[in-house]
Design brief:
Elements lengths: L3 E5 L7 H14 L6 E5 L2 H10 L5 E4 L16 H5 L5 E4 L2 H6 L4 H13 L3 E6 L3 H5 L3 H12 L9 E5 L13 H11 L8 E5 L4 H9 L5 E4 L6 H10 L2
Parallel strand pairs: 1-2, 1-8, 2-3, 3-4, 4-5, 5-6, 6-7, 7-8
Length: 239
Amino acid sequence: MKPLIVANWKMNPQTYKEAEDVFAGIKKGVEGASAEVVICPPFTWLTDFSHKNESPISFGAQNVFYEDKGAYTGEISPQMLKSSNVDYVIIGHSERRKYFNETDEIINKKIKKALEAGLKIIFCIGETAEERDAGKKNEILERQIKQGLSGIVNLENVNIAYEPVWAIGTGNNCSVEQTKEAIDFIRKFVPENTWVLYGGSVKAENSVSYIKEAGANGLLVGGASLKPDEFIKIVKSVE
């Protein structure tokens, strides 16, 4: 299967014109790539791109709610995403956990509901610097996996993204050796065919090492995914 390269734009860029330019640059540059490319823009740009897209690029949402419909102002249901040509959704990102108080239980509800709608999951887990320094990394990862995937038997559409919180957006990426250790540990709790990605200050110069040396099946890219030239280099580096 193809490596999975996911672009998480977060709350960027600020204008539709900028978003169009970034997407157009990526779209042109990854044509014919052997990796599967998923773009996860903000909701404001997401459905516009996904409805008119004719490229092999897939689309993902950065968030989803755990109910099908109802009086939940500001929320987006899994079925809304699925009916809008969206295939993936990021769930459990550390920024959602930190700023929006998402617990493992909430994340578990979101994953279950998204799977029911036929979406593919990018399930994020990872330890903070404090947890790492206290020697609790494996304990945190095991808890997040077991509680986040509680009651879910079929993990065919679940991809796990190991994103050490201390590496996200800091430029201080996790070493290949540490990443391999984490990925090997994660694989103890999931079926053999479950894909494990790495995310956290991914750049073109370190991307291939996470695939070929650390054993990741793909990458979750943040800041570098807003720079078409850099993101294209990342995609092509894993071929």
